[in-house]
Design goal:
This protein is an alpha/beta fold and 303 residues long. It contains eight helices and 14 strands. The chain has two domains: 157 residues, serine acetyltransferase, domain 1; 102 residues, Hexapeptide repeat proteins (UDP N-Acetylglucosamine Acyltransferase, domain 1), CATH 2.160.10.10. Helices cover 42% and strands 10% of the residues. The chain has a five-stranded parallel sheet with strand order 1-4-7-10-13. A five-stranded parallel sheet has the order 3-6-9-12-14. Helix 2 packs antiparallel against helix 3, helix 2 crosses helix 8 and helix 3 crosses helix 4. The longest helix is centred in the N-terminal third of the chain and has 27 residues.
């Protein structure tokens, strides 16, 4: 090996093995496999929307066998990834740890048991999209092609895992959806039924956001934090409510920004495009940008 490359390799290894560094992973416990989780998402979408995702030809005659195989495969592979995260988070990682394995079985059972309810919940999201988008020709079009529905479906799966204490896997899932759709929904957010994101690119929904039922939002909407509460040492207080609450029936138009954990948008309100909102508004409000007096100068173009 060239001396320059040898020297470079030695320097890289020295930086990697620096005991003071906190940005490294050498504790022997495998992290969740991102590629495997991506495949799990795709398989889960087949189970949630049979006949729409995947390459299987479903029929009522064969659906029990085909779906049964996918459910069993999804169960075993999800359990393996949950075990990886549980073991990584464990203070005493051990490949034979029964506590971590039992925990993985428990969480997997809890999540899989919610799939029928999750299918029903996603059906309300599909119907909300059809109800609120005059461009939608059918439920099939929405399920096949709407990025908002895909992002919400992945979020709802990730949220089930988040409720069971998982951190890494849910975040990997929603970031996968983010990279595909341009829609960033934190798995810790709470979102009610019949949720519709139209177009969707640039939508951001923060961790402690609370969204009621029958809410519609458009592209470029941010439901974010106004500031980050800190303790006496200046460290961020994690888990504090810092994102807004959106009550039932609210419509938020493109480019609106709503910030702050104390900010509540009352039910059946309409927030206009490009609005910047940092304080609560009562139910049935209509919030819009003030019209600006613009002075336009026209030049002749003669130099």
């Amino acid at each position: 090996m060239d001396k320059t490359l040898k020297k470079l390799t030695a320097e890289i290894i020295e930086s990697i093995t620096d005991r003071k560094s906190q940005v490294q992973h050498f504790d022997g416990s495998p992290l969740p496999d991102k590629i495997e989780i991506y495949k799990l998402i795709e398989d889960a979408l087949v189970v949630l929307f049979p006949g729409y995702f995947g390459d299987s030809q479903f029929s009522f005659e064969t659906i029990e066998l085909q779906l049964g195989f996918r459910v069993a495969s999804l169960y075993e592979r999800l359990k393996a990834q949950i075990f990886r995260e549980a073991q990584h988070s464990c203070k005493l990682p051990n490949p034979l740890c029964k506590n971590c394995r039992n925990y993985a079985v428990f969480v997997t059972n809890q999540v899989m048991a919610e799939i029928p309810k999750l299918r029903n919940l996603l059906e309300t999201d599909v119907k909300a999209a059809f109800k609120n988008d005059p461009a939608a020709s059918s439920y099939d079009e929405i399920i096949f092609s709407y990025p908002g529905l895909e992002a919400v479906a992945v979020y709802r799966m990730a949220n089930l895992l988040r409720k069971q204490g998982m951190i890494l896997i849910p975040r990997i899932m929603t970031e996968w959806a983010h990279s595909r759709t341009g829609i960033d929904i934190h798995p810790g957010a709470v979102i009610g039924e019949s949720f519709f994101i139209d177009h969707g690119t640039g939508v951001v929904i923060g961790e402690t956001t609370r969204i009621g039922s029958e809410v519609t939002i458009y592209q470029g909407v941010t439901l974010g934090a106004l500031n980050f509460p800190r303790d006496a040492q200046g460290k961020i207080i994690r888990g504090a409510k810092r994102h807004p609450t959106i009550e039932d029936g609210v419509v938020i138009y493109a480019g609106a920004t709503i910030l702050g954990g104390d900010t509540t948008v009352g039910k059946n309100s309409v927030i206009g495009g490009n609005v910047w909102l940092t304080e609560s508004v009562p139910p049935y409000s209509r919030v819009s940008m003030q019209k600006l007096d613009l002075k336009i100068t026209v030049r002749s173009g003669k130099g």
